[in-house]
Amino acid sequence: MEGFFQRYLSLYRPLITTLNELMSTYELSYSLWQVIFYIKNNGPSTLVDISNQYNVEKPTITRRVHRLEELKIVKQIPGKDRREKIIQLTELGEEIFQACRNKITDLENSVMEGIAKEEQNVAFQILPKIQNNIMNRE
């Protein structure tokens, strides 16, 4: 389908900008949110776990985690191997997660206004399939 990527990318940038604005109250960006979201949904995690999930280099995740530590949103906990850093949300991190999650849910609901539930479900199911196809090409 010619033009699909252009349509997707024209949606992506404004969405990320909106999300960044939405989370700016907490000094967060969408890239920092990804780390918080991963830890919240997967429990205490290593930097490698997070970098693998988002297909991002470990040093990039390390910088994000350092920033989240400065904000007291995450903390390191001891692992089996001293070289392995395990990260978990702090109590403040849990509170900020919930506040941002509520704002994001409100945004999701507002941008889906006027779109039938069936169409929303189709889009929700198709996007991971497209992602899988892209990842399998590499």
From TrEMBL:
Which named protein is this? MarR family transcriptional regulator
Q: Which Gene3D superfamilies match?
A: Winged helix-like DNA-binding domain superfamily/Winged helix DNA-binding domain
Q: Which SUPFAM superfamilies match?
A: Winged helix' DNA-binding domain (SSF46785)
Q: Which Pfam families would you find in this protein's record?
A: HTH_27 (PF13463)
Domain of life of the source: Bacteria
Report keywords, A-Z.
DNA-binding, Transcription, Transcription regulation
* UniProt domain HTH marR-type: residue ranges: 1-132
Q: Does the keyword DNA-binding apply?
A: yes
DNA-binding: is it a keyword of this entry?
yes
Query: Matching PROSITE patterns, A to Z?
Result: HTH_MARR_2 (PS50995)
Which InterPro entries does the record cross-reference, listed alphabetically?
HTH_MarR-typ, WH-like_DNA-bd_sf, WH_DNA-bd_sf
